[in-house]
Amino acid sequence: MITLFAFGPVFGLPDMSPFVTKAHLLLKLAGLPYQVDRKGFTRAPKGKLPYINDAGEIVADSTFIRLHIERKYRVDFNRNLAPERSAAIWALEKMCENHLYWAAVRERWMREENFEKIAALVFRRVPPLVRPVVKTLVRRKIRKDLYSQGLGRHSEQELAELVKRDVVAIAALLGDAPWLGGGQPCGGDATLGAFVITCHTPEFTTDVGRLIGEHANLLAYRERVLAAYFADLTAN
Ligand SMILES: N[C@@H](CCC(=O)N[C@@H](CS)C(=O)NCC(=O)O)C(=O)O
What we know:
The protein has helices spanning 18-30, 62-72, 83-110, 112-122, 131-149, 156-174, 187-199, 207-213, 216-229; strands at residues 2-5, 34-37, 51-54, 57-60. It is α+β, with helices and mostly antiparallel strands and 236 residues long. Helix 1 packs antiparallel against helix 7.
């Protein structure tokens, strides 16, 4: 059976990572049975989660997990999509993963009111004696990552403008359809579903979460994804 290496459930969500949540959704969309291992982070081949172990084959990165599923199990996640729609959805996915993601990271890790909450969660198993040092070092690394990526260089107001454009684009592309591809979920729903679920959480004060909450179609979409794929989850 496939093993998915993940951080694990929080706040009644499958994972706090959108990329891990995306991997859950891809496996579910493909109808593949899998188990979750929460102890794989230190052995992650690319230093990040998610990755999978499929009968000894290790595949790291949510997009490569998708490609692996497509090739090995002959799943066409976009079988009902016209090429133009498929292309637009791919662009939307990469906007979420490489732009919106970093905005969400900045809002969670750099805003004081959110930082203590995320730190309490992420470092809960770190021995109390070294926890303050670990917190400071990890936050410093993330600040550096944000600066290198670019979004760490903007003012809060500039960041808010960019986030708004992202969320408006997402809401417009989804429109009134239940799923990105229309009547049936497609591969892009794994990505969008993961981001909408994990970014709109009452536990954090973020522009990303607030803006998602201002779009009725995104809120309904969030409920749809949770009900269809994560109905068994309980808050913890
Ligand atoms: N491109 C990767 C991104 C994965 C990623 O950024 N994972 C984050 C959690 S959301 C992580 O493991 N970060 C740990 C670190 O950077 O040290 C994918 O699609 O899987």
